[in-house]
C-alpha cells in the first residue's frame, strides 16, 4: 500500500517525539519508583520479619529478585500494595458462584477436616474461611510489629480502615494484603474468556495464562462497598495480576503501559482518584483485543494505540462504568463519585484532543 510522504513524515515525527518522551519522562518516573521501592520494601520486610516472629503462619514472601519484588504492585509513585502469600489452602474448596462479582469464598471440603486446617480459628460456623477475620488478626500483628521493628520512628499504621495500611516516612502508603495463590485453577466467573470470535491472545498464550491462575486477596471487595451481607466478611477478592502481566508481553505493550501510567501521573492525578493506573492497564487489554495482530503493536503504532485507549477511557467515564477485563460484571468505577468521573472525562478529552491535533504534543506533556 502506498502511503503519502507527508503521512509518513508525521508518523516518524510522532515516533521520535514518543521515544524522546519515553527517555526523558517515562524512564525518570521508573527510576524514581525503583528507588522508592527499595526504600519502602526495606521497611516492610523488617515489619514482616517481626510479624513472623509473633505468628509463624504469616511468612513473608516479599523477596528481592535483583530489584524486582514478587507480590509488589505499584499503585502510584507514592502508593504500593504488597501481597504476602499464605500456605496451605489444602482442605478448603474454592467456591465461585457469581453471587459476589469479583469475589469468591473458601469453604471446608468436609466439616470433619476443620481441625486439619492451618487456619482453624478463622473458619466460621458454616465452614467458610473468613477473609476479614484473618485480616483483622494480621492487622493486630502488623500494628505490634510497627512498634517493635527497627524502623519504628518512620512507619505508622493507618487507622480507620479494615485494610492493613502503613504510612512510611510520612510520604508513602503501603497496603499489605494476605493472599492465597491459586495456580492451575481458573474461576468460573472468568470462564467466558477468551471470547471465541477474537483472535487475541494466541491459544498457547491462553493456556499459559490459565495455568498461571489467579490470587485470592483478603481485602475490601469493590462490588461489596456499601452492602452489608453475612458473606461479605468471608469473601476473598479475585486478582489476576500475574495473568495480566503475562498477556502484556510482546510488542510494545509494556512500553505503551509505561507511557499511559506516566501520562496518568502527570495529568490525571485528580481529586477522588477517578483514573488509576489499573484502569489504564484494563483498557490496554481491551485495546489488545481490538488490535490482535503483532504488527499493530510496533513502535510506529504506539501513538495510535494510546489515542484509542484514551477514547475508550472517555467513553467509560461518560458512561460511569469500566468493566474489569476478566470479570466484566465487576465495575472498576464502583464507589467513585459521579462528579469526579465527569471532571476526569473533561480532562481526558482535553488531553486526547491535544494528542490527536498536535504532532509535537509530547514536548509539553
UniProtKB/TrEMBL annotation:
It comes from Phaedon cochleariae (Mustard beetle). Pfam families: Mab-21 (PF03281), Mab-21_C (PF20266). This is Protein mab-21. Belongs to the mab-21 family. Residues 252-350 form the Mab-21-like HhH/H2TH-like domain. It comes from the Eukaryota. Residues 69-250 form the Mab-21-like nucleotidyltransferase domain. The lineage of its organism: Eukaryota, Metazoa, Ecdysozoa, Arthropoda, Hexapoda.
Amino acid at each position: 500500500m502506498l502511503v503519502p510522504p507527508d503521512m509518513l513524515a508525521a508518523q516518524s515525527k510522532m515516533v521520535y517525539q514518543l521515544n524522546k518522551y519515553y527517555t526523558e519522562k517515562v524512564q525518570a518516573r521508573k527510576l524514581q519508583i525503583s528507588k522508592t521501592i527499595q526504600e519502602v520494601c526495606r521497611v516492610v520486610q523488617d515489619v514482616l520479619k517481626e510479624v513472623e516472629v509473633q505468628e509463624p503462619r504469616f511468612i513473608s514472601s516479599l523477596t528481592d529478585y535483583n530489584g524486582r519484588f514478587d507480590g509488589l504492585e505499584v499503585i502510584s509513585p507514592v502508593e504500593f500494595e504488597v501481597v504476602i502469600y499464605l500456605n496451605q489452602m489444602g482442605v478448603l474448596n474454592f467456591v465461585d458462584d457469581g453471587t459476589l462479582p469479583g469475589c469468591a469464598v473458601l469453604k471446608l471440603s468436609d466439616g470433619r477436616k476443620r481441625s486439619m486446617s492451618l487456619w482453624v480459628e478463622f473458619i466460621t460456623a458454616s465452614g467458610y474461611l473468613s477473609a476479614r477475620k484473618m485480616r483483622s488478626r494480621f492487622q493486630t500483628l502488623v500494628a505490634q510489629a510497627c512498634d517493635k521493628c527497627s524502623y519504628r520512628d518512620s512507619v505508622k499504621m493507618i487507622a480507620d480502615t479494615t485494610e492493613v495500611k502503613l504510612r512510611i516516612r510520612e510520604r508513602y502508603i503501603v497496603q499489605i494484603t494476605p493472599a492465597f495463590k491459586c495456580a492451575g485453577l481458573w474461576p468460573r466467573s472468568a470462564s467466558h474468556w477468551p471470547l471465541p470470535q477474537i483472535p487475541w491472545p494466541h491459544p498457547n498464550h491462553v493456556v499459559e495464562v490459565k495455568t498461571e491462575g489467579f490470587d485470592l486477596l483478603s481485602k475490601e471487595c469493590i462490588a461489596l462497598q456499601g452492602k452489608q451481607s453475612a458473606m461479605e466478611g468471608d469473601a476473598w477478592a479475585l486478582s489476576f495480576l500475574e495473568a495480566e502481566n503475562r498477556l502484556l508481553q510482546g510488542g510494545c505493550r509494556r512500553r505503551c503501559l509505561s507511557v499511559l501510567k506516566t501520562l496518568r501521573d502527570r495529568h490525571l492525578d485528580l481529586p477522588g482518584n477517578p483514573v488509576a493506573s489499573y484502569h489504564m492497564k484494563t483498557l490496554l487489554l481491551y485495546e489488545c483485543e481490538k488490535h490482535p495482530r503483532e504488527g499493530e503493536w510496533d513502535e510506529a503504532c504506539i501513538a495510535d494505540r494510546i489515542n484509542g485507549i484514551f477514547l475508550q477511557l472517555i467513553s467509560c467515564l461518560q458512561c460511569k462504568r469500566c468493566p474489569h477485563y476478566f470479570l466484566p460484571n465487576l465495575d472498576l468505577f464502583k464507589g467513585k463519585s459521579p462528579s469526579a468521573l465527569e471532571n476526569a472525562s473533561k480532562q481526558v478529552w482535553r488531553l486526547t484532543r491535544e494528542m490527536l491535533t498536535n504532532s509535537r504534543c509530547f514536548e509539553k506533556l
